[in-house]
From TrEMBL:
Signal peptide: none annotated. Residues 1-23 are annotated as: Disordered. InterPro entries: Glyco_transf_54 (IPR006759), MGAT4 (IPR057279). This is MGAT4 conserved region domain-containing protein. One of its GO terms (cellular component) is Golgi stack.
């Protein structure tokens, strides 16, 4: 095998041009990973279709019972129930199917479910369940819902002052018609518990009345993977300070290889959990945040994550960044602003 085709002679498009210099074993491993991802996605869609079919069966059974009751009421005699056979039901269903359709059209409108857009929910029943919740008096039919997200801040948190400002500027009637939901976007249980206790001590009256609720981060199947991805990138940047003998080109390559690995792993994680469409949205988001800076500084074709150059320059798997205790200004800044993404202890 020369890396440009498979064993039966069929050409595998894009292997040679897109990955020149990469061993054939790496190419096959990459392709197998892609096929595995596609199979997993197909299985999730298949599960979604099974749920649709089950729901459709229930609707059909309900319709049959409704039709039978309607015919019994029309005939008006229990002794005539035997006359209500399957042919009556099929005939009535057939007439209902034609109602409202354009003549000659066989198209049926099928509304998408949440699993069409978030297929990763099929693999975990807890994907939309809050890991923790404070709610003393649940309200319904309110006219206003305020969402207040918060993350761990190393210097100062504005959560309490924000809630005080929001509640103090609401009238009594407005408080009765509203819910304030505090979303604690953290997976650290100690921090979540500390924040929850602070909310209860500061706003116990409003929690008891149902005005204020608190929910922490949604359970995530990929939390540890996400953290290791970011840690590896920051560890790459940290090494620039440790390797003072690096040439300028090596320092640049070390940073770009770390970024390429981070970007590749992040895309893979998003694809596994959220599907192809989520990757497109993620790339749009990154384009809006970074513009063309990363493409100009670290072109993907010059710094592929699996290249020999990057394998030599990247830190060992599992290396943790120094973060704020390191000498690198970039990692200090990033871990200060986005500390919830990294593990630096």
């Amino acid at each position: 095998m020369d890396g440009t085709g498979d064993t039966d002679g069929h050409h595998m498009p894009g292997l040679k041009s897109a990955t020149s210099g990469v061993p054939a074993e790496h190419l096959l491993t990459h392709r197998l990973m892609e096929l595995s991802d596609r199979l997993k996605h197909s299985q999730m869609l298949s599960t979604d279709r099974k749920r649709d079919i089950s729901a459709l069966k229930r609707d059909i059974n309900d319709l049959r019972e409704t039709i039978k009751l309607s015919l019994i009421h029309t005939i008006g005699s229990d002794t005539d129930r035997k006359a209500i056979n399957e042919s009556h039901v099929r005939q009535l269903i057939h007439s209902l199917e034609g109602t409202g359709r354009t003549s000659g059209s066989s198209d049926v409108l099928q509304l998408p479910s949440i699993h069409h857009f978030l297929p990763h929910l099929l693999s975990s029943s807890d994907s939309l369940k809050p890991a923790f919740r404070i709610s003393k008096n649940e309200r319904s039919s309110v006219t206003m819902v305020f969402g207040v997200p918060t993350v761990k801040r190393d210097v100062e948190s504005y959560l309490v002052s924000t809630l005080h400002n929001l509640i103090d500027n609401m009238s009594v009637d407005e408080r009765l018609e509203a819910i304030i939901v505090v979303f604690i976007a953290e997976t650290d249980l100690d921090y979540v518990t500390k924040t929850a206790n602070e909310l209860e001590s500061q706003f116990g009256e409003h929690i008891d009345s149902g005005l204020l609720e608190a929910i922490p981060s949604i359970e995530s199947a990929g939390g540890p993977n996400k953290t290791s991805i970011f840690n590896n990138f920051l560890a790459s940047v940290d090494q620039i300070d440790d390797t003072v003998t690096d040439k300028a080109d090596d320092s640049h390559a070390r940073t770009c290889c770390g970024y390429a690995t981070w970007f590749e792993c992040t895309n893979k994680l998003i694809k596994e959990q959220c599907g192809e469409n989520a990757i497109k949205n993620y790339k749009k988001f990154m384009g809006g945040v970074m513009g063309t800076l990363t493409d100009m500084a670290c072109p993907a074709d010059l710094f592929p994550a699996e290249s020999d150059q990057c394998q030599k320059l990247k830190p060992a798997p599992g290396t943790k960044p120094k973060g704020k205790v390191g000498d690198n200004a970039l990692t200090k800044y990033v871990t200060s602003m986005f500390s919830f993404l990294f593990i630096t202890e």
